[in-house]
Amino acid sequence: MSGAKKKLAQKEALTQLGLTEKEKKERKEAAAKKRNTILGTIAGVIIVVLVALLLVWNSGFFARHTTALEVNGHKYSVADMDYFYHQMITQELSMYSFYQQMGQEISIPFDVNQDLKTQYVDAEKTQSYHDYFLAQAKDQVVRVTALTDAANAEGFTPDEETQKSMDSILADLRETASKNGYSSATHLLKLNYGNHINEKVYLKNVKLSMLASSYDSAAQAKATVDYSAEDMKAYYDEHSALYNSYDFDYAYFDGQPVKETDDDGNTIEPTEEQKTQAMADAKTKAEGLMSAIKDSTSEDDPATVFANAAALYNLSNTANSLVLGSKLKDQVIYDEWLMDSARKEGDIELFESEGNGYYVIQFRDSYLYDEPTVDVRHILVKAETDEGAETNEYDVPIPSQAQMDAAHDEAEELMKQFNQGDKTADAFGELAEEHSDDGRDTEGKLATSGGLYTDVHKGTMVQNFNDWIFDTSRKEGDVGLVENAGPGYYGWHVVYFQASHDPAWLTSARSARSSEDIEAWNTKLLEGYEGVEASGFSSVGSK
Predict the structure, then answer these.
(1) Separation between Cα atoms, residue 534 and residue 543, nearest integer Å
(2) How confident is the model over 247-295, as pLDDT tens digits?
């Protein structure tokens, strides 16, 4: 006890000596009341302070002034990181939405209305969706920082259109909020990015992201220069297996049991024994095909021998031609075997796709196919035929000349209709969707959307069609009539020439080399950049 407190206690004791019991009691009650008043005052002050702190926290003040991540001297607050965190969530949702719009039956594996910390990316629950998006946000901030540093160092300015968008960020945000009935832009922001964000934080980070994106596009375009013919020839020589085209024969034997249903129409799950037996049956057939081909004494070419043997198993369309190596690599189980430089014509091999079936593959040739490819649209007008009409060698009815003339007149009328309109590729596509006799799906839509065939190689279409589209005088927008006199059908085509492209190998190789150069540029860009988590990092993504 201090000296002052001791003296007060002594004085209080002396004062108490001459008092009655009643007076002593009254003094004690007064002292207690005084202490309670003091404690109540202190408690009230504490509550006021706590309420004030809570209000300040909910306002986002601390989140906007507490560092969550530091990247090479640049500090990002909790609110800044919240922006990127929620951007990563939005991107993921957009990806799933795109897949769904494309007709894929895929569901979003997380619920943004529930706690992402209790929802997991993997079955083993090693990473929550919160941690997944947090890691993505961190990587994004590091990349945005590196890009904006590089942009500022070079004195880079975005193009005029991007600059206009950057200048109207807040105006666009406020207009969106007003049109959708929100009380303010801040209200809209908090709903989408959490309680920590405000217009200032939003504006800062959207501008950073737009600058980074604009610089990224410009720098990548600069990194992928126009490669010379000599450059690409050297690249081909180094990766010839990838950019050669392959001709081969292909047969597949399904090794899965035939699906059976019960009396109610429900699928019955096959037993393991049934699965094993189905694979064994498929292997027996595949080995039988190989033996028939190897034992053949026919003097026909290997492709014909393969096709004839496959026909015994009711297999057709076994020949594959002009398949680019880059489209085989890592896409099929027989890629390495087929692309091996030791392969020679007639080599044949059996491949098992575990649990699915067996492939029999026969190599015929590999080579550099250096011809251009084209994109064309067509409208097919099939000629009508009479019942009992004479057929060709493929049992296709042959129309009379009058019926061919009628098909010609109809095709000519469609071409006239096209020429009187916008004369665009889209307009031709709409006409094809309405009038073409080409193959359609169960909903009546053309198998080739708008009658479009892309990357057509020379020699893959019927002769007249091939000659028209590969005429050296052909140019974009040309339209004409082409007769189709069998063998699969008879009639006329209205053909629209859409575009000509470099040889398929060159397009693929240029794309691959560009990707390599961009990856090298990215690696160099991020050298020395690291995101260091600070005290506020654990608060990112919290409500």
Answers:
(1) 19
(2) 999 999 999 998 888 888 788 888 999 999 999 999 999 999 999 999 9
